[in-house]
Amino acid sequence: MLDLSQPSHRRIESAPSNNQHNTDELFPQSQEALRLLRRGRMHRDFISSESSTGFHRPQEAARILADCIDFTRQAEIAVLKVGSNR
């Protein structure tokens, strides 16, 4: 069962990994999940580092945060797919 008590990026980071393989040998779905997670983090970091945190352009900040959530959820789904294929 999926534990929703943690934010999705924490669940992805704490997902069990197979230590027998290095990151180059991960399944393609895992690579996709990592790519999506990095994109989500980039969007989150942009908002947190932007000096006015969306004060001057709140609609754009909301759009960027929505993209962040979307990428993170897509990464979570990719991780769940990898787990169900094992």
Please describe what this structure looks like:
- This protein is mostly helical and 86 residues long.
- It has a domain of 59 residues.
- The chain is built from three helices and no strands.
- The protein starts with 7 loop residues before the first helix and ends with a helix.
- The model has no long low-confidence stretch (mean pLDDT 77).
In short:
With 86 residues, the protein is mainly α. The protein has 3 helices and no strands. The radius of gyration is 15 Å and the shape is elongated.
Low-confidence parts: none
* Termini Cα gap: 16 Å
What's the pLDDT, averaged over the residues? 77
Order of H and E elements: HHH
How large is the share of residues in beta strands?
under 5%
Query: What is the helix fraction of residues, given as a range?
Result: 55-70%
The overall strand count is: 0
Q: So what's the overall shape?
A: elongated
Structural class: mainly alpha
Largest beta-sheet characterization: none
Number of helices: 3
Rounded to the nearest angstrom, the radius of gyration is: 15 Å
